[in-house]
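Table 4 source record.
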Amino acid sequence: MSLRKKVALDELEFIGHPNVLATHKTTLEITTEDYLTPRGDCIIGINASKSLADLNERVKSDIRLGYYVYLVIQVGNYSQVIIGKGSPSLSLDDKVRMIIRKSTYTSSSTLMIMANSSARNIDRRIVETLRRGNVGKAFILTSEYPLKDVEALRELVNGLSVDNIS
């Protein structure tokens, strides 16, 4: 069975900011807001092109079914894969914030729970590139079965796009 039939994908762009610290121990956030204060130590990107509410319905449905969720962050020549889980208790309707959580806490702004990384675990080269105000991309992949990081990245490299997901 083809991996393409088991995954759903969405993507968004965001911009870094000089106040990106990425030091929070349990969460990571991307926001549609256009500012960032030093207190936002979990935020890695602002001015996101999409919020949770804007994600395609297939991705949101898979997340609510408790599928595996992969957030692939790509900034310049660097990328990182964060793996977590969806949950039936996720409403995915926040219009501003998209939060990745290491815990099982859920709110309207939670994209995934039980993530393997938080802001603090983001590759420091990515953080430094974002601090210079560079554009980043985030790809959100869902899969009923766990994928290895390399498989998730391979799907992206092989041209899997929102347009060819059924």
